[in-house]
Amino acid sequence: MNTILVLGAGGQLGHCLKALAERTGMKNVLFPEEQEADILKPEALSALFNKLRPAWVINCAAYTAVDKAEQNEETALLINKTGVENISRCCEQLGTRLIHISTDFVFEGSDVRLLTEMDEAHPVNVYGATKLDGEKAIAMILPHYFILRTSWLYSEHGNNFVKTMLRLGAERDSLSVIADQVGTPTYAPDLAACIFEIIRSESEAYGIYHYSNEGTASWFDFAKAIFDLSGTTVNVEPIPTSAYPTPARRPAFSVLDKTKVKNTFNVDVPYWRHSLERCIRNLGIH
Ligand SMILES: NC(=O)c1ccc[n+]([C@@H]2O[C@H](COP(=O)([O-])OP(=O)(O)OC[C@H]3O[C@@H](n4cnc5c(N)ncnc54)[C@H](OP(=O)(O)O)[C@@H]3O)[C@@H](O)[C@H]2O)c1
Q1: Which of 152, 158, 164, 241 has its Cβ near the most Cβ atoms within 10 Å?
Q2: Nearest atom of ligand 1 to the alpha carbon of 83
Q3: Rounded (10°) CA dihedral 27, 35, 65, 253
Q4: pLDDT tens for each residue of the chain, 286 residues long
């Protein structure tokens, strides 16, 4: 049976891949702990690859603290670039196919139009720059890879916007949420399903793909939907980005065009609000 190795298994997407693999009886997917699969320890990583000889690697390991990355550029670069180089070299040695997760934050997002895989990346923050460096490292080392760029990931697991809003909504009577940054929330289990679908397809249409949920929303729209669907009574005020300064700049409009992933793999791309409804139901809130 072809082994699929998941790196960064302890994170949000790693959890969702594990839940889906367990639910669908995929016994060939391995989820080692970070100590066993530290992407910054190339020798240990190579030994793990040699032991497991995976046909596929799904890399979910990343430095994802967008604001902290502005101060911790060295660490972000180490994990998002050097770590990805280490993985790519192991894949190259064994002919392992890599699925790597990247981000809409590789784009500047200053135009109001859908972003395709052909659009030039131009990150506006350190996190985005290091993720782009990771993408470039893969392309330098590996002939065959899939890079999936996604956006605004959330789920029942880990820390994310949905869980933060539900917590704040329970604590406060009113909240201010940014209304002039537009993107698409992505339910991590939907992305997990897309990843397994790509593997199942045995497709050799390697390259970069965009995957988020369908539709567009501002953070304000997203927050309103979270409160509507969970039955939380809280007053939500729309505010401009300028009223909520953060260390990292963010793209104003980063809606990903999913045409390529849909046409190539025939994957299901649910509308963001429908997936949010599923998440809230799974959290046992409504
Ligand atoms: N979250 C989003 O909104 C979002 C949006 C677009 C794209 N993405 C991308 O989607 C992917 C998955 O994101 P996520 O939300 O699942 O992130 P996450 O929850 O932060 O998970 C990342 C995982 O990588 C682990 N990790 C860090 N350094 C490592 C190392 N040296 N070796 C092995 N593992 C290491 C982290 O462990 P520790 O917790 O111990 O550090 C964590 O478990 C990432 O590539 C991210 O860039 C995320």
Answers
A1: 152
A2: 31
A3: -30
A4: 699 999 999 999 999 999 999 999 999 999 999 999 999 999 999 999 999 999 999 999 999 999 999 999 999 999 999 999 999 999 999 999 999 999 999 999 999 999 999 999 999 999 999 999 999 999 999 999 999 999 999 999 999 999 999 999 999 999 999 999 999 999 999 999 999 999 999 999 999 999 999 999 999 999 999 999 999 999 999 999 999 999 999 999 999 999 999 999 999 899 999 999 999 999 987 6
127 is annotated as an active-site residue: yes
Which one of 127, 145, 187, 209 is the catalytic residue? 127
pTM higher than 0.90 for the full model? yes
Q: Which of 46, 48, 60, 126 to mutate to test the pocket of ligand 1 (most atoms within 8 A of CB)?
A: 60
Pairing of strands 56-59, 97-103: parallel
Would you say 13 and 154 are in contact if contact means Cβ atoms under 8 Å apart?
no
Q: Are 41 and 16 in contact (CB under 8 A)?
A: no
Instruction: Give, to the nearest 10 degrees, the angle between helix 161-171 and helix 219-230.
Output: 60
Residues 6+ apart with CB under 8 A from 92: 141, 142
Angle subtended at Cα 179 by Cα 163 and Cα 193, rounded to the nearest 5 degrees? 45
